[in-house]
Recover the amino acids of this structure.
């Protein structure tokens, strides 16, 4: 029972020395990676650097207790930080207590929403985000994030939530680029690129084992941080206009209630929902990929509760919205993390850093953090995916391209909403014109097949139609018109039989359309029948007393229908003579 | 060619005396019905009474030229008037020129939107409004409209866009009810009810023909109007606090450009879209019902252009949004209208009224108009539909009930948006868990059937699964998890074969899910195969080089797959011995 409430108990019971060793090593490596990242993502979210550290402590412990992945590393991530900046930026000014309070409230709402979704077992709703929309959203967010960091690398003031605003704002300030800042920013960027691309192979050539080489390469950002701090300190670059992180309060996060302001909550709620859903979808796909490698299983609803409790923890300890990060989870996994204890240890590591190391970051140039972000998010940008999707499906591509265009042109929230809406509408449009076939009798048998594909015999007075989809609101009216047109196009037609063998459901809209169709056909002197209606559908039609509306009958098999409505043609078609081709098809 | 641009030409060419007689009679009856209605609906929309008359002239002529129904009667209608009041009421105060300008701009936007939808042939998008949502919306609007008119019948000041606001506002004023107003309002309401219910049978008993009786009964509102004008005039009730319509400018509508204010347009656009779609859906279903009775055909896209041009005409002549009205179209049809000329003649009739009769309406009590509205909208309220829908389908009922609750509790726009969103989400949820069957071989045949329904033979190492739906974003992740769980649940399983005979499409999300599934199963030591993939789907998979990801193969038939993966079981199952039941199913 307690394990259902607190899934973390399960791994704690099984904990041993081997797990401890794996977890401890992974925690050290992830901590080293996470310190610059958490400072950088706080900067991206428009928050003081310590907020990034706070968001990397309690949430990790909370996820360890409630989450279902053994290796997912939770904390501030790039896309969610960008979305936080967009959501909070509309309500408050960067640097004010209101801004910080709104970010904390956003974590609270996001946490409540995620936990509620999980407890209500609504995890499957996240599947309404189609892959191309998510992929386009991530790519466009990556571009937007990289563009938003250029100001720090150039040492100028700029802002904006769309690519156009950012470029315009940067262009206006291009005269006031700060040379030393640019040198540090560009240098750090190039260095981090080199580390990412070339250091690991180089180390392996030099005799490092592949895992050690990888871990060393992951420490690149830390090296850049240390080097640029020393540079600024030694050359007194702060006085030359290089913006630094400045004083970071030393100590553990403040435990406090988030702002209890219903008006603020109402304004933040839509953003909180979007952030939660995007964060969850990203996180759960990372978790699933890693889980499969160890033949473990991710429970989407438990994942929701896990991520939700992480966000609640963030909101109670001065943090901001968090989720599972891709790069850091892979590092955690590769470094040998066995259980969520690695996350708890990472939280302790970050806690130590917050207690002891923050004075060292005072002279850390913002340009270095920006370089870290730029290099990190470039891996999010997946341009080839656009081409692949174009080749695979034009309508998926349309949803993807619209998402990218809207994110870049109108901001993250407009982008994700557009993408989701468009992918749903395109799907409904697609299924609103279902496949439909006129069928005829296969000579010498009781089978009926598409007249376009088989040599079959059709009745001159009975139109036999098969619809290969459930009847529901999006296709009801189209089918109504189509069937009516087909029935009245041939003046000899007296009966229409709709074959329902592929109809799994008829919703209320389709029922009304059928009733309208029966009436319209009746006015035109044509009777309407059904055949091969499935049991559950028939039950529904009976409840609605549909038979009372019907001008015709409901037949068990389509052969029965034809035999009753046009016995002559049916008898001819069923005979052996027909099978042997002696009687021509009419 | 000209007929394609101006469909009205067609009926003009065929026009003769018989058509003229029918149209003229219908026009007289509809005009008599429309005069009080147009004044009343303008009142409902918060506009001066003459605006209702203006909206009943030029739009009718425009529809006659561009619309596709021969008998649809266009003009101000109750639901659209309510939606206009809700949309414009947010931006301006009733009675100001800004309010009137915004209503005119709303007609312009609605016209442009409808014409654009028609030219782009997007009429089918209206099918995204499911019938239960429309029905719930109309019912709730009827209740809201009736409640909004109570203030006129009671002679008090009240307002609000939701039922709660209205009731609270009425309750606060209940002390200041005006006796004479209540007497007139209640009297008119009771009289109109009696006319509606009992007058026609009474007249028929008295020897009137059914059509004459019907037409006479339809003149009930006019009788109420005349009687109450006389009452107010003779008893000088205006001085006793009975609110009257007051001066109505005499003359034809002013021809002028609508307000050219992009900021206003932007604010009105969402409302214009909602009004257009609701108006179109209502109108087209009336038009189709009437058209079927004469074996005519309604072209949804031409209907859009027709209604759009009617709204453009309204916006150029000081009117407000219009659409086809149910009651008046039926009256028009029953009175023998043959062509859209009846609409043109009705417009002329209203024009004459505007030129000559408006001074007579000066003493018309608002309470009488309110009574007209209340009695008219009660026919919109369809409570039994709630019960029918509940019995027929719980998810349709949920969408319907949510729509009603939101319209009453949060207003018309929130209501329609909620209903549409909910019906789409419920549909996606429904189709996100498609029917799926484990299949086995029918002994002695090469056929495969559901293991739950047939006595079949299954392979101990091969899991055969058939999915009865296209694979797309809403079901992709669920299927991925389900298939993975089923495959790893039985440790003996080495191969999974997905039978794709019912899969008409695989979208990009489902493709990625399949790739992820192949990888996850691969990590678990299980190979993944496909069988019976349709041609177009196979082409798509080839374009995406899916085969390269596959750990297994693509088989033409499922029998081929089984024969290759588990030849022993397959051979046993195919043999005659199996057919005769000598070998037991494993």
């Amino acid at each position: 029972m307690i394990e259902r409430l607190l899934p973390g108990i399960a791994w704690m019971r099984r904990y041993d020395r081997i797990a401890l060793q794996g977890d401890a090593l992974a925690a050290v490596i992830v901590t080293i990676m996470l310190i610059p990242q958490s400072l950088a993502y706080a900067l991206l979210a428009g928050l003081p650097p310590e907020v990034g550290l706070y968001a990397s402590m309690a949430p990790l412990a909370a996820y360890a207790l409630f989450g279902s992945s053994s290796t997912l590393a939770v904390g501030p991530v790039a896309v969610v930080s960008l979305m936080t900046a967009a959501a909070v930026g509309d309500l408050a000014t960067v640097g004010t207590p209101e801004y910080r309070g709104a970010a904390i409230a956003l974590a609270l709402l996001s946490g409540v929403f995620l936990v509620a979704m999980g407890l209500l077992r609504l995890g499957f709703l996240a599947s309404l985000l189609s892959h191309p929309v998510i992929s386009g959203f991530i790519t466009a967010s990556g571009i937007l994030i990289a563009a938003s960091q250029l100001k720090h690398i150039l040492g100028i003031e700029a802002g904006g939530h769309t690519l156009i605003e950012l470029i315009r704002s940067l262009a206006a300030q291009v005269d006031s680029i700060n040379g030393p800042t640019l040198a540090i920013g560009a240098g750090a960027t190039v260095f981090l690129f080199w580390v990412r691309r070339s250091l690991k192979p180089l180390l392996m050539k030099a005799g490092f084992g592949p895992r050690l080489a990888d871990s060393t390469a992951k420490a690149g950002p830390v090296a850049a941080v240390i080097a640029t701090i020393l540079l600024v300190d030694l050359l007194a670059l702060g006085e030359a206009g290089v913006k630094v992180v400045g004083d970071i309060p030393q100590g553990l996060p403040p435990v406090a209630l988030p702002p209890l302001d219903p008006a603020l909550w109402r304004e933040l709620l839509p953003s909180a929902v979007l952030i939660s859903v995007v964060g969850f979808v990203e996180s759960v796909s990372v978790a699933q990929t890693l889980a499969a490698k160890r033949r473990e299983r991710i429970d989407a609803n438990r994942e929701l509760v896990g991520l939700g409790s992480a966000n609640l923890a963030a909101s109670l300890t001065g943090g901001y919205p968090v989720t599972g990060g891709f790069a850091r989870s892979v590092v955690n996994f590769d470094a040998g993390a066995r259980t969520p204890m690695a996350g708890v240890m990472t939280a302790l590591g970050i806690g130590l850093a917050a207690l002891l190391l923050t004075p060292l970051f005072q002279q850390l140039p913002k340009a270095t953090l920006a370089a870290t972000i730029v290099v990190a998010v470039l891996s999010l940008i997946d341009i080839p995916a656009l081409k692949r999707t174009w080749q695979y499906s034009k309508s998926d591509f349309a949803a993807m391209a619209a998402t990218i265009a809207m994110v870049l042109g109108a901001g993250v929230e407009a982008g994700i909403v557009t993408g989701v809406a468009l992918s749903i509408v395109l799907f409904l449009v697609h299924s609103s014109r279902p496949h439909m076939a006129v069928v005829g009798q296969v000579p010498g048998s009781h089978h009926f097949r598409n007249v376009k594909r088989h040599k079959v015999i059709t009745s001159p007075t009975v139109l036999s139609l098969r619809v290969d989809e459930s009847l529901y609101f999006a296709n009801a009216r189209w089918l109504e018109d189509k069937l009516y047109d087909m029935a009245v196009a041939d003046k000899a037609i007296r009966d229409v039989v709709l074959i329902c063998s592929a109809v799994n459901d008829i919703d209320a809209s389709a029922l009304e359309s059928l009733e309208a169709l029966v009436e319209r056909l009746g006015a035109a002197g044509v009777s309407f029948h059904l055949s091969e209606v499935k049991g559950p559908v028939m039950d529904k039609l009976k409840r609605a007393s549909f038979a009372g509306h019907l001008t015709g009958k409901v037949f068990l098999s389509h052969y029965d229908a034809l035999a009753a409505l046009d016995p002559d043609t049916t008898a001819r078609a069923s005979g052996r003579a027909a099978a042997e081709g002696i009687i021509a098809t009419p």
The beta strands of chain B are 74-75, 323-324, 436-441, 448-450, 462-467, 495-499, 527-531, 554-555. The radius of gyration of chain B is 32 Å.
